[in-house]
Structure formats: structure tokens, C-alpha cells
Amino acid sequence: MPSPRRRPDPAPLSALTLLALEDIAGAAIVLDAELRVVDFTPSAEQLVGAPLSRGTFAAKALCGEGDQRPIAEALAAGQAVAAEVTRVHPEGGTRVLHVRGTPLRRAGVTLGFVLLLEESGWERGGPDAPVERFSILTADRGMKQLLRDIERVARRSATVLVRGETGTGKELVAQAIHAASARSGGPFRAINCAALPPHLLESELFGHARGAFTGAVRDAPGHFRLASGGTLFLDEVAELSLELQAKLLRVLQERVVIPVGGRDSIPVDVRVVSATHRSLQGAVAEGSFRADLMYRLRVVPLFIPPLRERGDDVLHIAQRFIAEQNALDERQVLSISSGARARLRAHPFPGNVRELQNVIEYAFTMGDGPVLLESDLPPELREAPAPDGDRQRAQVNVPRSVPGKAAPREDNEAARIRFALERSAGHRGRAAQSLGISRATLWRRMRALGLAE
Q: In terms of domains, do 150 and 285 share one?
């Protein structure tokens, strides 16, 4: 019985074709239908960090002998794929390659694939080593992916919605998008939509004409015009009134503003990055936020994980805050005791990075000597249940329901809030600041925990 005829190997691409492919797509690898390398651009071989051979299977060229082969598995199923491949540098360190694979089809038949590779720097110490980019320090893989997403987002002018708990650094992400974009030479303006009543916020955003209201003795441009050519960051955008939402939607659609008390439309050239600690989709379902505005603001959503889900980031960031305090304070802290490290790891940090910064400042104020001790930490950390060795943070934070009794996490949070209020003599603004949360968030938590008067 004659053996089945093997499909002939595709011919290599011409030098001119490869040159054109590199100019258009950058680092690229062309595969046949069996996922073998047909040809590649010179920059692709440089990024892979090893010689590429025609006829080699893509999985072997990119993944070596590794068990995880997400790219090959997706392409074998005929699907487009975006994945990461870790390459080991021969002189030490690793590189994360970002690979996007697309099937090449004609008349419903898959003829081959093209892989596009994106450049990434060598990370000394491996993929779990801490890195700092845009003033964001992290060793967490999810946060490192966020840093790469920031660089991608910065290339275009699409509106971005940053979602994260209070204190996670939403404005820092917005500043990073601005700094990595072509608008970095323009202004960066930020305004908190929850900080002002609607009539004042409208004037702050869109400006006002002279005589528009009592005290308007001169024209004022507003944040949209002041941010022209740059980026405008709208924090806590979910707190906008419905009336202001309608006016913001018009600005985003038509790229013009009408100042309060004015008649003429004024063109603006602004990239808008907004942020919220709660779900806009949930706000739309409640009827407190316009769906059409949500779709305008949420073209590209970015999510910041809370500090408690970022592993050892709490210790890396604590060390950076210690270095900052060392530069300002007479006390010089050279290390953190094992007990203090365990307490920092076990604490859920509802106020996230902002709360951690306050914790370190408290420790510098209340302690002495070159070692930051457990006794230097605020009472809400010291008085929490003792950490159980190297117990996982997720176990510490899991509430266990007991009939007639609040979950431990709520008990701890109520104790922290009571202590903060006592320490601030009942002043909610100062108490919220010491907890690393906004005054509005403090009020919501007090009401939920039955602490509001």
C-alpha cells in the first residue's frame, strides 16, 4: 500500500519579503500548517536569543523542552493566541517574550501561522525578581503584566478606566500611562470627582465665564482646557452626578467644552483616564451611572490587584518606604525583624499601599534603633491574631461564618476603625488618613459595620 504523500515544504521567503515583513510587523516568525518554522525576520532570532532553523517546530524553538506550551496548543486548535514565553539568558537572568499568534487562512483552510514577538528586557534574578517601572515596585507576576499593559495602552489614545481598591495607586497608573505616551510632553491634570459638589465640579472640569455665578470675577479655563495636549485623570468617576455625566459624555463625543455661563464651544485635545474603586457595570445596573458613558470611559479597562494578593510586595514596598524615611528621619532602620515581617505579611491592608506607607511612618515615629520591631507597628497590626508560621495570606483573610457573630475580618476592621477614631479624637478625616482610605470609604465601612451614629 503506497504511503500517503507528504505536503511539500513551503519555500523560504525572499530577502525582500522578509525586509518588508520586518518593516511592517517587526520581529516575526512564519510557520506552516504543521507549526514548523518557514522563515523569520532577523530581529525575531535576536529576541529568541538562540539560532532559529527552518523546519524546526515552533514549540521547540520558543519553549525548548518545557512542559507548558500554550502557544503551540492554541495554534494546533486553529485559534489566535497571545501568551508569554520565558527565555533563559546564557549569561544569567531571564527574558519574557510576548508572543501573538494568528492563523493564516484562505477559503476556510489554515495554510500556516504568523507569530509576532515583542521585545522585553532581561530580568536578572528570574521572573519573580522585583522590578520598578513608572515608580511602581513589584515582584508579583500580575503586577508585572499590568506594567506591560500600561506600555501597550500608552501607544494609543483610547480612554482607559483604572479599577482598584482605595490606596492601590490608581493615579500612579494614570501618570504611568501619560509618561509612556506621546503626550508625555503635555500637561497631566488630575481631579477627584468625589471631592466637590456637582456645581463646583462642573466649573472645575469645563471652566466658567466671567459673571456665570457669584464670585466668578474672571474667565476660568477648567481642567479639560488646561490638560489640552496631555492627559486628564478623573478619579472616582463613578461619583459623578447624572447631570454631569451627560455633559462629560458630550465632551468625549464631540471633543469640545462649553464653560459654565458660556455659549461658544471650545475644542479640546485631551486623553481621558478615569478611575473608580467600584464596578461601573454595577452602578449602571443600579441606575446611578449612564451606560453610554461607561462604554466611552471603559474602552480599555485596567485592574490593579490589592496589596494583600501580591505576595511579598508588601515587604518590598515596605523597604522602599523605610529608605524614604531614612532619608528624612534621624532614625536609620537597617532591617525588619522576623516578627514584624510576619505581621506585615498577615495584615490584610484594606487601605493597600497608602495604608502601608502610614504604617511605616508610624513605626518610625514610635520606635527606636536600627531594627523595625513588631512592637513598633500600629496596634491594629500588633493586636491581630498572631500569624501562624508561614501560613498563606489567603487563609488569614478567609472569613468563617458563625451564627450571630460577625466574621473575624469584620471584627478586626471594626477594631481598627474604633482605634483610628480614638487616636484622632473622633475626627473622621484624620482617622481615614491614618487608615489609608478616603473619608467617604470610612463612612461607608462604618455604616456597614454598624459604627455610624
A: yes
* 429 lies in some domain: yes
Question: pLDDT (tens digit, 9 = 90+) per residue, 172-219?
Answer: 999 999 999 999 999 999 999 998 988 889 888 998 777 566 666 577
Q: What is the pLDDT of residues 296-339, one digit of tens each?
A: 999 999 999 999 999 999 999 999 999 999 988 788 888 899 88
Report how far Cα 271 is from the mean position of its chain's Cα atoms: 18
Cell of 145: 503584566
Say which CATH number the domain at 415 has: 1.10.10
How far apart are the C-alpha atoms of 6 and 11, rounded to whole Å?
A: 15
| In the block, residue with C-alpha cell 471603559 | 298
Residues 422, 436, 402, 395, CA torsion sign: negative
Residue with cell 456637582: 198
Give the global pTM.
0.67
116: Cα within 13 Å, side-chain hemisphere: 13
Same domain, 148 and 88: no
Query: Are residues 175 and 202 in contact, defined by beta-carbon separation less than 8 angstroms?
Result: no
3-state SS of the chain?
CCCCCCCCCCCCCCHHHHHHHHHHHCCEEEEECCCEEEEECHHHHHHHCCCCCCCCEHHHHHHCCCCCCHHHHHHHCCCCEEEEEEEECCCCCEEEEEEEEEEEEECCEEEEEEEEEECCCEECCCCCCCEEECCEEECCHHHHHHHHHHHHHHCCCCCEEEECCCCCCHHHHHHHHHHCCCCCCCCEEEEECCCCCHHHHHHHHHCECCCCCCCCCCCECHHHHHCCCCEEEEECHHHCCHHHHHHHHHHHHHCEECCECCCCCEECCCEEEEEECCCHHHHHHHCCCCHHHHHHHCCEEEECCCHHHCCCHHHHHHHHHHHHHHHHCCCCCCEECHHHHHHHHHCCCCCHHHHHHHHHHHHHHHCCCCEECHHHCCHHHHCCCCCCCCCCHHHHHCCCCECCECCHHHHHHHHHHHHHHHHCCCCHHHHHHHHCCCHHHHHHHHHHCCCCC
Of the residues 88, 123, 158, the one at which a domain ends: 123
User: Which domain, by its residues, includes 19?
Assistant: 15-123
